[in-house]
Specification:
The complex is a heterodimer of chains A (386) and B (399). Chain A is an alpha/beta fold. Chain A folds into two domains: 137 residues, Aspartate Aminotransferase, domain 1, CATH 3.90.1150; 240 residues, Type I PLP-dependent aspartate aminotransferase-like (Major domain) (Aspartate Aminotransferase, domain 2), CATH 3.40.640. Chain A has a seven-stranded mixed sheet, with helices on both faces. In chain A, strands 9-10-13-12 form a four-stranded antiparallel sheet, covered by helices on one side. Chain B is of the alpha/beta class and 399 residues long. Chain B folds into two domains: 167 residues, VC0802-like (2-Layer Sandwich); 210 residues, Rossmann fold (3-Layer(aba) Sandwich). In chain B, the strands form two sheets. In chain B, strands 1, 2, 3, 4, 5, 6, 7, 8 and 9 form a nine-stranded mixed sheet that branches. Chain B is elongated and about 85 Å long. The chains are: A alpha/beta (386), B alpha/beta (399). At the A-B interface, helix 2, helix 6 and helix 10 of A face helix 2 and helix 6 of B.
Amino acid sequence: MTQVVYLDHAATTPLDPRVRAAMEPWLGERFGNPSSRHPFGVAAAEALDGARAGVARAFAVRAADVVFTSGATEANNLGVIGQARAGRKHGRRVLVGATEHPSVREAAEALEREGFAVETLALDADSSVDLEDLARRLAPDVVLVAQMLVSNEFGTVYPLRELARVVRARAPHARVHVDAVQAVGKIECALAELGCDSLALSAHKLHGPQGVGALVLVNSTVEALLVGGGQERGRRSGTENVAGALGLAAALRFAELERAASLAAAKAARAAIVARLSEMPGSRVLEPGRRARGIVDAILALVVRVAPAEVVMHHLERRGVYVSAGAACQSKKGAQSPSLAALGLGEDEARHVLRFSFARTTTVAEAEFAAQALVEVQRELAAVNA
Amino acid sequence: MNAPDPDVILVRYGELALKGGNRVDFERQLANNIRIALESVAPAKVERHWGRMFVFPERRTEVALARLREVFGITSLSPTRRAELDVEAIGKVAEQVLDEALAERTAPGPVSFRVRATRSEKRFALTSVELDRVIGGRLKERNERLTVDLEEPDIVVGLDVRAEGAFVFARRVEGPGGLPVGTLGRALCLISGGFDSPVSAYLSMKRGLSLAYVTYHSAPFIGESARKKVVDLVRVLSRFQPRHSRLWVVPFAASQIAIRDLEVAGYRTVLYRRMMQRIASRLAEREEAQALVTGECLGQVASQTLENLTCIQAAATLPVIRPLVSFDKEETIRLARRIGTFELSAVQEPDCCTLFMPTKPVIRGRPEFCEELESRLNVEQLVEAALASAELVSIPPEG
């Protein structure tokens, strides 16, 4: 049997059997609409409460602060559009990070069509958010600042706490929204620690099911994007996904419990690939900001010289190794990554960035297998080029 | 690399309550309540010192700070950095602490400050007055925005010099005040799904009472969801006391039917409430509670006249505490919003109080007439039956 090594966990992760077990009763014999007032409904509502309390615990907030959504895209939409609309009376300016996921960036663009002014924050030489540029842009009419916590391209940790501090001092009405999709389960994400008002997450990046996520928000309000039955305290109508919510809570619980183990696994996997770098002429690791603010080892960005990342990726595929050429959400659009440009990579070199992403299930043997394949693929392609 | 987070939280608490012999109990209880409140969100070691406490969270100092703002008995908190017992080290940390405080003040113009040192480690080379001067001078030199104001400074840089190190702080966060839960004993709170009783519960915990709860449920006239509403409210309130919150759910339909069948519609509400007080008084014995707490308020609804409250109270065998007695509805609602019970209470849900509601309740009830009516009931049997089928729900403190 050919070995399959999946190293694209930043795109999605396999479902943890323990998470599936937590969901299974509500995909089988148990059912009920949490809004029903008979015991079937009350039991479903209680299951949902349990899931909500679990999510709340992970972020050190109250249960009422958790809004279940269909995933991070919806959570980002609600965090950005919903909070900006709720803050409209204070002003109409919105600031977004340069590297934001399209679910944040395009949500902000949607706001532009209703009269908000949207500005993109500058990046510094480390491809991190430029706090001085932020400070210059801040004023009391800014109602929202959106910034991701961990880069999906390099794993760089953005300085959310410092950002929030600057925002508080200069824009008292602004809400700070954080896309924490790549951060949850890897670094501390309690809202009070980050200093932010809202945070979006997704279950399927944490060995949970696809189709469920949450917006966690403290002392903040949103205008609902989905209206109807008034579920989720009026912030997100639609009959709740009870099994999905339980899956998200279970995935978070295991991610927190096993955080140390998964960090160790990522570190070891990363080291196993980096150790073979000398056998890959011209290749280098991109890890901007590692010294200043740290990096999440679960993501490894490599510039490969021999061929565009897309080509290398498909060659690796044939050897059973699955990685990504840039972040999957952006790779279909072919747009130049602003973070790579900030690091001084030209449009051409930017096409040579290969991304490996690890999970707690990744073994050193798998990483070594992938590294061997990568060395061989590069040799093979170099021979073709020559 | 960023400066490491402040690693200690300085906790201040009320001085007034410390007079007399209960000081040690008070401090022990507060330390214990702090430890339990932080257990699930930011586990911490708590050290008691004369008149203040130090909390050392393993991680998540900001989370701990936010959580401690809900622990009754705490008047204020400061995230604190620790320095070695050395003037140079203290100066460095003081610079960092002051810089952080300044970063939060972006309005242009001068900022006044002072240093206020206290010194329990008397072997330290400088006296507190000398420390004020030396560290203050050093800080002022670094930033031309700074002016010294000893009377009403914008920023106070506190230095607490102790054997284990110097503790330096400038930020100060208000606590909730009140007394540590448990220091004033235990009470049983009658809770419904409305706005008032959860706020009453909050206020009585604030004054140092630990609470158990009782709610009355009229199955089969009302459903499971009414019961769940009360459970949800107690869950929100559970974060304000360290122990599990015990909620007794008492079936009440039998009492209500018996009272309805007396056919004196105007007295129904008063008689329901007398029955509730009776059952609660008995449950209080099980809970070792020394008082009952209710959400009653003077004059808010027809049943809450002085005469009716007298009728109702006469059925209780324990003192009845009514924290909301002088509150306006708006004040109650405002507090309900703050403590997080408003949205739950606002959900429309029939409860036992609305069952067989008379159109014209009596305004000035007479206790003798209540007794006369009740003589036609088998009160003791109704109470016993309710107690026998009371269900206990135990809710852990919400983190």
